[in-house]
Each structure stands twice: as structure tokens, then as C-alpha cells.
Amino acid sequence: MTPKIPETLPPVASLTDGVWLKGDWHMHSRHSTDSTNNPEAKIIGFAEKMGFDYLAITDHDIHVWGDVANNTWADPEYRSDSVLLFYGAELTAPRGHINILSTEPYDHQRVFDARDARDWDLLALKNELGVHFSANHPSTKNHYGYSFDIADSVEIWNTSVWPKNIPGVRIWDDMLLSGRMLGARGGSDSHHGVPDTPEQTTPQSIEATANYVGTPTTWIFAVERTKDAILDALVRGRASVSANPCNPRVELYADVDGDGEMDTMMGDNVKPSGKPVTFEVRLAGGGIPGACYAVKVIKNRNEFGSFVTDAETRSVRFTDTPEEGARAYYRVEIEGPQTPFPEVPNSMAQSGNTVALSNPIYFNYDPTF
Fold first, then answer.
1. Ordered DSSP codes for 163-177
2. How far is CA 46 from CA 42, 84, 243, 348, in A?
3. pTM for this predicted structure
4. Which of 37, 51, 72, 143 is the most exposed place for a label (fewest CB within 10 A)?
5. Are 57 and 29 in contact (CB under 8 A)?
6. What CA–CA distance (Å, rounded) separates 329 from 183?
7. What are the residue ranges of helices labelled H in 142-257?
8. Which CA distances in Å does 98 have to 93, 131, 219?
9. First-last CA distance in the chain
10. Positive or negative, the Cα torsion across 134, 135, 137, 141?
11. What are the phi and psi torsion angles at 338 (to 5°)?
């Protein structure tokens, strides 16, 4: 079935009535048996220190045969006065891994017990429980082997190591080109903490200096600072990903009606008028002062063009004319110098020149597909 071109689309939500929030959607604590020196208090304390807004500790469920409620969630350390904590787990199954995310506790045991079920049965269970399914690292050894039609989002940046994610981004582009609007996120997938004493050192301890909370960081533009609003914005794709929280946040906007004012942002879905559309890429927050960043624009899975941000405004504009009778999407990838992240000093080298990437702006996508 080919997605139809809709005759009308719902109005775009406000670009100003909201707040940017940062966090990490994929982490493992001591409740995952392949984790070391990483109690929940250490993870949450680090996130609090870095000013994170939300966090999802998603321990593997296979080690406890689905009983995350009496392990990860029951841990007295699972609390914070400043960070919004999601309830979740990494569904660990022969067909691959899914992050299950929820604003409140849910019956994860039922999801685990159905891990090998047919996709349509998993979809029915997901809808019954009211939880979010996020496709984890779709191109790695423990790939996502379920239908993307049951996924609410996809992890296109897993750990600080950028190069291994390139095949996964291609898979995401394939899904977008097929007419699916699939919000993208990052996830550090961090397993190991820095040892508190030399005696606690393990062969994996070095990983804590290269990959920890916030490598990468997912930025969410939510209507308010609540878990419901954050999860809704993730589904809608009003989000971008940075290699670390000290890097700039990339924002992608468009002036669809040609009045000189940006009226659409990443995640939004609008009808083109047949006239040229001006797009604007903005870098906000951190970064290297005075640096210019390369902007690669992807349109419908292909590279549309390369641009360079202005050092003073930290922005750049480009123009294109989306066809009235066809679907199109535009997203951007940012390359340039990595901003130092002293708390995880070796992460910068792992990410290379890739600083950030955006979700798409959609034209003529069928929201009911």
C-alpha cells in the first residue's frame, strides 16, 4: 500500500510555546549483569550534576526474566528531585532489542513473556499497556528485528561511537522514504561507571571515560516539562541529537508560506504550496565560540547540499521547492569540532566530526499511514 497524499493536514503546533529539554534514553545500571560500577545513584547523580531534565534507565530484562519492577524500579536509589525519570527496560529477545518506555510503572512482565510473539500481537499489547516502543540500534549485532510499524521512535545514534551508526541512519532514511514518520533519538547505551577505588577496576572500566550519560544527548522540544509532554514530542520528532551535552543543539525550521517568518520546525508535517521554501538551520547552546560548522542537508535519502554556518549568527539558510503532489522530507547533519566534555573525555574522539543531527521536516506525509 502506497501512502496517499493527504488533501489537508492538521495545523502546526507553536514554535515558541515550549521548552527545550535534554536527556538520555538508553542506559544500564548494576541491575544489568553486563554492567560494572554503575549503581543507579551514580547514573542519576551524574545526570543531576550535568543539568539533565529527563532520563531512562533501561536495564536488560532477560537477566531477571522480565521482573524489572522488582529490580530496577524497586531500587531505593531510583529517585531524583530534579531529573524526570521514565520507567522502562530493554526488551532483550532473539529478534533484537526494543526500549520500552513509559511515564508510569507498567506490566513489563507481559511484554517480556510476549517477546517472541507475532508483531501484530505485540502491537496490540503495546496499545493495551499504553507504552512506547523504541527501536534500538537497528544495524548492530543485537539489531532491531521487529516491524518498524510497531515502533514509536528509533535510536539512530547509539553510544558515542558515531561510525557504527551510519548503517542505522540509512535504515531510518529507508523508513522515512517509504512514507513513515518515525521520530529519531539517541541513547548512550552506557553500561560502566568510573570505579570508586582501584580494586573495583574491570577490563570494561575504560569505557566509562568514552561513553556515559549524554553521549549522545537527545534534545526534546516539549510543550511543558512533564514526562507526558516529552514522550509526545519524541513521537512527533520535535527533537535532535548531539554527540554530547556541551555541543550545540541543532534546530531545523522552515518558512513554508513565504512571509519571512519561520512557521515549521523538525517533526512537523505540512502541505507545500508549490513555491520556494526557505529553511533555516540554527545551532543553539554550547559549541566552540567562533567556529563554523558544516551542514549536510538530506532530502529523501539523498544529499541535497552542503552549507556552512555563519560564525556570528550560528545559522545558515537554504531554499528548495517541494512538489505539491509528492512527499518529501528534509533533515540535517552537522559536522565540525567537538566541544570538550571533560566528564567523559574520550567520547569526543569516538564521535569524530559528527556533532549533531536533526529530525526531518515533512511535506505531504499521510499522518494516518
1. GGGHHHHHHHHHHHH
2. 6, 14, 17, 18
3. 0.98
4. 51
5. yes
6. 13
7. 166-177, 227-236
8. 9, 12, 20
9. 9
10. positive
11. -75, 135
Please tell me the distance from the alpha carbon of residue 362 to that of residue 18, in angstroms, as a whole number: 20
Q: How far apart are CA 66 and CA 68, in angstroms?
A: 6
Instruction: Copy the grid coordinates of residue 29.
Output: 545500571
Partnered with residue 334 across adjacent β-strands are: 295, 356
Residue with cell 505540512: 270
β-pair partners for 277: 320
CA gap 54, 74 in Å, rounded:
19
pLDDT in tens, 32-64: 999 999 999 999 999 999 999 999 999 999 999
DSSP lists the bridge partners of residue 328 as 363
Distance, in Å, from the CA atom of 341 to the CA atom of 228, rounded to the nearest integer, reads: 30
Grid cell listed for 336 = 565540525
Return the C-alpha torsion angle 263, 225, 243, 41, nearest 10.
180
- Residues of the chain short of pLDDT 50, as ranges, are none
Residue 333 neighbours by CB distance under 10 Å: 18
Q: Are 255 and 263 in contact (CB under 8 A)?
A: yes
State residue 188 phi and psi, 5-degree precision: -65, -30
Cβ(205)–Cβ(192) under 8 Å? Answer: yes
pLDDT at position 1 is 67
Q: Does residue 26 sit in helix, strand or coil?
A: strand
